[in-house]
Amino acid sequence: MKIASFNINGVNGRLPVLLRWLAEAEPDAVCLQELKSPDEKFPIDAIREAGYGAIWHGQKSWNGVAILARGTDPLETRRGLPGDDDDHQSRYLEAAVKGVLIGCLYLPNGNPAPGPKFDYKLRWLGRFANHAADLMATGAPVVLAGDYNVIPTELDVYKPEHWVDDALFRPEVREAFHRLLDAGWTDAIRSLHPEASIYTFWDYLRNAWGRDAGLRLDHLLLSPTLAPRLLAAGVHRDVRGWEKASDHAPVWIEITDAEAGTKRRAARSSKRRPKE
């Protein structure tokens, strides 16, 4: 099963890019962020024609998230991040797709920092960590995929010294991300490519794409039940070079089915077991 996340940066304006990528990559499930579209203008007809069912949580001009599933409809389990009834921004959506629970998120940017937007980001991260813990406690296979607006380490940014005071890279934000990993979530890309410089975002300004001056902002975190099923992970970075592309590239993972994952866990346990 192939699961991907793509900050599309305007689903209607970049619909040709999305449809071309779906046809070429054929992901089984997709998380989209920054729809920048109200619910009634989400291009569901074109997406269905491409072979995908979808659920979406839109917002006019800003934010917005969606989950697509190839050949089926996602089974929605949650709309909106719990913990604040006054937060009406469209940043979180959750669904079951082919036996995997998928949380699609668009975490606040937080700039300028310090300030109210940064405070909101930290509160959102706290609520997200609480919900992630609840999901992990179920024992279900879960992936939390999306644009986290977090640069986890210096390896994940071109010239990190330029980002020290940015809300994407401030210590409070990176610490919150690493607390998720310490709690048992697996950063899929980093677990398979621990030393590689991998980016998922290149600004439109200052020829960032041409200079490969990128950031890794888009992540897929796997629950302990799902992590042993991870086969591959990467970035479809060539999509960033397409005409009228988003400033993000799609990130993706491939996982085995549940039975194969069980066998892999058993094989690992037997290797660790001391010989008699």
UniProtKB/TrEMBL annotation:
Q: Which family does it belong to?
A: Belongs to the DNA repair enzymes AP/ExoA family.
Enumerate the cofactors the protein uses: Mg(2+); Mn(2+)
The record describes how the cofactor is bound as:
Probably binds two magnesium or manganese ions per subunit.
Q: What is this protein called?
A: Exodeoxyribonuclease III
Record keyword Iron present: no
Pfam families from the entry? Exo_endo_phos
The Endonuclease/exonuclease/phosphatase domain extends over: 4-248
GO MF, one term, reads:
double-stranded DNA 3'-5' DNA exonuclease activity
Biological process annotations from GO: DNA repair
